[in-house]
Amino acid sequence: MFVLPFEMKKSHLVTLGVLVAVMLGVILLTLYLHHRAYKNSINEANKTIFNPDAAAAFVDMQGERASLDTYRGSILIVNDWASWSPFATVELPLLEKIATEFADKKVTVLAVNRKESNDQAERFLHTIDPLPHVKVIIDTKDYFYGATGGYAMPETLIYNADGVLIDHVRGVLQYDVLRAEIVNLIK
Residues 138, 120: contact at Cβ < 8 Å? Predict the structure, then answer.
């Protein structure tokens, strides 16, 4: 039997237990509401990102303006990368594998380069295997990363066909996890 160092009535223990349960409930509710508000704010930012008239000037590797709104209607995997990130040599080929595997399933994979020139990005891309199924976007102003709450590298965002953020993966991608999430979205 548990013995308290002081005398406490059973009713006091029940009251203490209820108070602890209420405090835990408040903490969990606060965390849930904070998480929901964060996701809503990101999805609000996405309305700007997916706007064809967005202030951000995304361009493709040919220097043509690229609007993320173009890809609405497909599942969208967007990876932030830069030539200085050691993870780019691992993730970009992984993204090519995903893009190839799901090419006929309305899945689009974008690799958004962070704040580098087209020439710098191209030099790096020549050091890895070609990415014929990944659409490379240059974001010299780093607008996408900032607007989506980026704070680590690498980061990958997964959107459903309606442009709603489903997942924001911070850290190195894992092929099996990403593939399972895409399969689930396709269903």
Answer: no
Would the pLDDT of 187 be above 90? no
Cα–Cα distance, 39 to 45 (Å, whole number): 10
Paired sense of beta strands 75-81 and 107-114, if any = parallel
Segment 103-144, tens digit of pLDDT: 999 999 999 999 999 999 999 999 999 999 999 999 888 888
Cα–Cα distance, 107 to 30 (Å, whole number): 35
Taking the alpha carbons at both ends of the chain, their separation in whole angstroms is: 54
pTM: 0.74
Q: Where are the domains of the chain?
A: 59-186
The tokens describing 146, both together, are 């900032």
Whole-angstrom distance, CA of residue 74 vs CA of residue 160: 7
Place of tokens 């014929």: 132
Gap between the Cα atoms of 181 and 98, Å rounded: 11
CATH H-level, domain 59-186: superfamily? Glutaredoxin (3.40.30.10)
Residue length, the chain?
187
Could you give the CA distance from residue 79 to residue 140 in angstroms, rounded to a whole number? 15
Q: Which residues pair with 156 in a beta bridge?
A: 79, 169
